[in-house]
Amino acid sequence: MKIRSSKYFTRLLMYSLLIGSIPAIIVGIISYYKASTIVQDKVNQSSMATLQQTQLRVEQILKTIDHSVTQYISSPLVVNAMSLPYSAAHYQVYNEMYQSMVRTQTFELTINNMTVLNLKGQWGIDNNNIFTFDDVRNLDQLLRFEKLPSFSLWVTDEDKSSPSINLVKKIPLNSLKANGLAIVTIAESQLARLLAADSRIGSIMVMDKDYRLLSRSDQKVQQSGLEQLVAEVQRRSETEGQFNVELDGDNTSVIMRKSSYNGWIYMSAISIKDITRDSRSIGWVTLFVCLLMVLVTGGLALFGSRTFYRPVRKLVATMADRFGDLPEEARNDEFALIGYRLQSMLQTESRLLAQLTGHVRELKQFFVMKLIRGEEKESQLPVRLKEYGYQANWEWHAVLAIQIDSLERSQYNENDRDLLLFAIANIAGELIPAEERLDPVLLEQSQITVVGGAGITDEEYKNRLFAVAELIQRTVLHYLKLQISIGISRPQKRLIDISVSAEQALEALRYRIRYGPESVLFIDDVQPEDVVSSVFPHRAAKELYDAVKLAERTRADELLERCIELIFREQADWRQYRMALVRLYTMLTELGQSETTADTKKDTETELPPDQERQLFDRLLDLKSQEEIRLWFYDTVIAPIMRRLEQQSKSHAKKISDQITDLIHQRFDTELTLEACARQLNYHPNYLGPLFSKEKGISFSEYLQNYRLQMAKRWLVETDMKIADIAERLTYTNPQNFIRFFRKMENMTPGQYRELHCHHKI
């Protein structure tokens, strides 16, 4: 069989080529990047110096204008003129002001126009003439400068399409309340000439402190790019710096300086392409050198790869001839072929080892199970122990029997019990060293672990096994969230007695019913030495019987807890505990049956089927803690009995109260008393009175009086009986007593009641 392609050789060649080429490419890229960075830094430094010179030149001119205007408006001629009204008598003063203003403006100062306004006299002078406010069209635009917050300020004219810059000074100086204004206007074109003189590379722009463009050296930056540049400058808080931004699709380096004199922002924008024009030539040279190095590296890689590939090719040919055809995916790669063959051999070895390990584990557990059941012969023990790798020199052994306390309040159900016991067996096997135990096994609903070791005292034996048991309990609680109890047998010297030890450990677990969940029980500690005749609490059980019979729930709960506490107070055999619980159960169920009426006995809910009765007994014998026993007795036995007794009591009370009301309705016009009703119904009056009041919510006498009152009102409206006859029929010996009672109950006399209701009836 032949390999169709040499993938390993190709990878080896590519790897060698990459090892040699990547460093050359990286060096070339770093060299080009470094050269470009240096060139850009040099250009940025030069641009920063040029921008600084431009700023100084512009600000020098602005400061000169500011100084000249300040001298002019500070002269006595101008200060005194601000108090003069507009009049022909003062023409000489106006003319002198005009001549002085013209002399102040030189060509170097680039002043386009200068205007002086007298706010009180409402006249002014500019470069053209002397005027009054009535002659000025844009007077509002000039007078708005009066509201400026400073007495000297550079202001941009926003209303013109070609913006101009105005220097506004209030007269006199250092006074916010001005008598006059001096306004000097500089055209944008004058400022643009100053900027164009220094724009050897890129574009120079000037903005005022409100980010309005005042002037620029050229029109390279379009309006959209200018808006983007303004937004970027507004976002930055520094007064001087450099940043890159994309303007009109071109990556541009921008240098910015903010003036401390008037807050103007000077910027220089240079295209990155223009900056890196020289560095691109360096990039071409670097690229040529890198390509040359890659070609040389490729030749060396080809020679070396062939040399290193030769042993691999021989190995692949040998394996192909030895093992024959391969799967399609293993034929295109040399190491895939080798890996496939090695993986096949390793998988075969792993399967054989797993099968052997599984069989050995099953045999070991089967051996331990035979020991526990007493089916192993003592003469064969040494051979078996050596065969399965167990210690044969133990001087003692003991058995730990582990059971799950309960699954009712856990996240598991009964179907998970076997799996959980298997997990507990694994935990026990991990926690107990292999040389100190046999393999844990499962026996019915218990997990059995045989432990052993060298000779120790009884106290050391107990301490050691107790520590192991607690460790297993904590680990199971941590990982499985389950409570378990552990029974521990007596130490035995002969391994053949493991079956006896297992019975002792399981016997110890049966005393968990007394000690509760999460118990570690040594058979010597829990098995009683003296036999107790009985653990049944007769007196407490009788009190519980009476409390249940009277349906006193709180007292019944307290007495039930007391009974269970008394049952388990004595150290007795676990069978006696079960007998006492069965006796208590029988006594309570007999109470429920004896107190049930004949009608209730026929009800299917009060008589349990035999299968259900047997399930209750099995559940009772399966309870493992005093709390479980108490809850089961109360919820399953006591509570249903008390509910039935309460229902019977309520039904009986309602029946008697209904009989009493029938007697009242039939014999209200006689000398009827509670004692007479009691004699007729065969009950004591002291029993009938509270029963009637509790059921009807009203006493017997009140109910009788109210019924007689209702009959009197009925007779007054529906009949013509005299009031005296009505009183006599209702057993009143004196009609006045009846009238007083009627007035007390209805707030009117019987006669008034008859007249009122008969009138309504008509």
Descriptive report:
The structure is a single chain. With 762 residues, this protein is α+β, with helices and mostly antiparallel strands. The chain is built from 27 helices and 16 strands. Helix content is 59%, strand content 12%.
Mean pLDDT: 79
Class derived from helix and strand content: alpha+beta
Give the number of helices: 27
Shape: flat
β-strand amount: 5-15%
- C-alpha Rg (nearest Å): 58 Å
Unreliable parts: 597-606
Helix content: 55-70%
Count the beta strands: 16
Major pleated sheet: 6 strands, antiparallel
Straight-line N-to-C gap: 127 Å
Strand order of the largest sheet: 3-2-1-6-5-4
How does the SSE layout of this entry go?
Elements: H1 7-74, H2 76-81, H3 91-104, E1 113-118, E2 123-125, E3 130-132, H4 139-143, E4 152-156, E5 164-171, E6 180-187, H5 188-196, E7 203-207, E8 213-216, H6 223-235, E9 240-247, E10 250-258, E11 265-271, H7 272-275, H8 277-323, H9 334-373, H10 381-387, E12 396-404, H11 417-431, E13 441-443, E14 446-453, H12 458-480, E15 484-488, H13 498-509, H14 512-515, E16 520-522, H15 523-526, H16 538-549, H17 553-567, H18 574-594, H19 598-601, H20 610-622, H21 626-667, H22 674-681, H23 685-696, H24 700-718, H25 723-729, H26 735-746, H27 750-761
Parallel strand pairs: 15-16
Antiparallel strand pairs: 1-2, 1-6, 2-3, 4-5, 5-6, 7-8, 7-11, 9-10, 10-11, 12-14, 12-15, 13-14
Helix pairs in contact: 1-8, 8-9, 11-12, 16-17, 16-18, 17-21, 18-21, 21-23, 25-26
